[in-house]
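Researcher: Structure for this, please.
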Amino acid sequence: MLMGAGGGDPPPDADALLAPLAGEKALLLAVSGGPDSVALMLLAARWSLRAERRIEVATVDHGLRAGSREEAEQVGEWARALGFRCHILRWEGDKPTRRVQERAREARYALLATCARDIGEDCAIVTAHHADDQAETILFRLTRGSGVTGLSGMARVSTRDGVRLLRPLLGLRKSDLEAIRAAAGHPFFRDPSNESEIFARARLRNLSATLEAQGLDAPALLRLGRRAAQAEEALAWSAGRALSEATIARDASETRLDARVLRELPRELLQRLLAAEVARLGAPVALRLERLERAAQTIAQALESGAPARITLGGASIGLSAGEIVLRRAPPRRQTRAEAGATTRET
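Model: Predicted structure, token format:
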């Protein structure tokens, strides 16, 4: 739904807001056409370092509702009017009927990462995530029982599909970005799915007044995120130190760890150490926290009893014997007869 231009106060300093991007050579701005991403594009257009950087825009047509193609093409026109090359990325194929927003987000980041790699190996993706997005993410994860890592919220710098993902506007509120767009008099689109109670995040937004009355407003959630981030930093440092103390041998295919050192570790540090080495050696898949916790418990019990143990986690094999924990990439799983038959029929 196309919204009007509007007006407002003079724009803020683009150089100050985009200062975290000053060291970048190439940037791909993720622009959906909503007010937040339009504000990001407007800031990039006014950035004094713009001429010295390769900056392009990408918009994703998810194909989930009528008019999405026309909206993507309109974003392309807006980007070109500001002097940016625009890539219209389309999510092809059959669309899911369950976990739609989650899978659409995964597809979107995969498309953006491919586009960024095509631009160049030094190209980073930039999104318009802001403080209200951060608070909403923390609340969403809180309702799902996330650990310290999840409650830290979104990082300003992270990696997705091998491409760096930058969020320079996390310090701004949504109203700040709305004001930037309004001051420029630039039109935007409003995605009706953001208000549909079919989706969990929309239901949480509709509870905001109730939650704020109980003190769980955006500032409180952001405080929680900052404190969780501090705890996360300390835990990550401690896990790294524990790995260094426990390592007997470590190369591209195997990690051997001293069971005596691991036996003394708090469960959280053992869990983090295992997760880091599984991520390094195993398949490139995200580990669910519940599964990681169960695996760490199994290893902790084996360490305590001294009994041999062997489990597979995230594409890595973890074994305890002769006073050592050994992690290796697990061999490919053999297909059952039924799976082999199904594969044959599908092809």
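Researcher: Any notable elements?
Model: The domain at 2-219 is CATH 3.40.50.620 (Rossmann fold). The chain is about 50% helix and 20% strand.
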